[in-house]
Task: structure prediction
Amino acid sequence: MIPKVVAAIVTGVMNITVGVVVFFFMLLAMNGFSESDASYGIVTYIILAVLATILMAVSAVATVHVLLKRNWRAARAAILAILLFSGVGAGLKVVCSIIGVLVADFVRVNF
Result:
């Protein structure tokens, strides 16, 4: 049980940290947008980033569970899950930021 909790917490914290960094770069990318247009992109990014963080933490727990059933050591299973889903989460955060900028651009052009 402890490796699963550790994997979930560490993966969640790492994903939150990456999400904050990507958020600030997204704000820099949306420098020319008005506040009303950019707010749609920011809200979209926050919703998608929170969902991605939750998904990565749950996936890390599931992976540790499967690896422990296959007789892996607890520390190795947790480290593998943390590294794997922190990396995947970072990639998803970048995709979420691109989607957020595209939503803001769509609102700016069409409304």
Observations:
- Residues 2-110 form one domain.
